[in-house]
Write a structure and sequence with these properties.
The chain is of the alpha+beta class. The chain contains 5 helices and 4 strands; from the N terminus they run αββααααββ.
Length: about 210
């Protein structure tokens, strides 16, 4: 049996305390090393997996771009692409289950006038359109939705231009004018989109190639 606490000398108690502190430090060191090893290994594993996925995505992109370019050339040969087209392809599989869209996309920027235009347009929609034509209200509101980067979509705003003469309200006309003046093209590229049809709803569902969409 061990001695009662009061039977230990001061030196013995100090030695026991030192041993306990040493063991605690050693345990803390081991836990820290295990944690750092796990974090470092996991970080490396994720990056390695990402590099492999990136390489596969590059192969997929290059292969798909080549196939779509060939498809575009064949469609152009058969006259299925309008002469005014910038090279886009929009095709649905024979069974109606799959769809590919290969389209020209404009990367754009909008200055502060676009914010003013959006404010005027939303004010007009709420005060005038919503009370008289809810369908039109929903259609135009959808055109003002922003993409995942928080920016206005050029193609959607373009759709507003085609309806420029739809209303005489000065807020509507001023909003269209400001949108036109605030737009500035930054870059352009061909964009690949793939879809499959939902067997239950019949709607097209995008097959995401973007990790942020999962």
């Amino acid at each position: 049996m061990g001695k009662a606490l009061e039977q230990y000398t001061t030196e013995e108690l100090q030695a026991m305390l030192d041993q306990k502190q040493k063991e605690a430090k050693e345990q803390a060191r081991k836990e820290r090393e295990e944690y750092e090893t796990y974090i470092n290994n996991t970080t490396s594993d994720i990056v390695k997996d990402a590099l492999e996925l990136n390489a596969l995505m590059r192969v997929f992109f290059d292969s798909t771009t080549t196939k779509l370019s060939n498809m575009r050339d064949k469609l152009n040969t058969y006259g299925e692409i309008k002469s005014t087209s910038k090279g886009g392809v929009h095709r649905v599989s024979k069974d109606g289950k799959h769809k590919i869209v290969y389209r020209y996309s404009t990367i754009c920027a909008w200055d502060e006038r676009a914010e003013k235009a959006e404010g005027l347009l939303r004010e007009f929609l709420t005060d005038f359109v919503k009370k008289r034509d809810i369908k039109m209200y929903n259609v135009v509101s959808a055109l003002l939705e922003r993409n995942k980067e928080g920016n206005l979509e050029y193609s959607r705003i373009q759709s507003l231009y085609s309806q420029e003469n739809e209303f005489d309200d000065p807020r509507w006309r001023e909003a269209i004018r400001l949108f036109k003046e605030s737009f500035r093209p930054v870059d352009s590229k061909m964009r690949i989109e793939v879809y499959q049809r939902n067997e239950t709803s019949g709607k097209w569902e995008p097959i995401s190639l973007n990790l942020s969409n999962f």
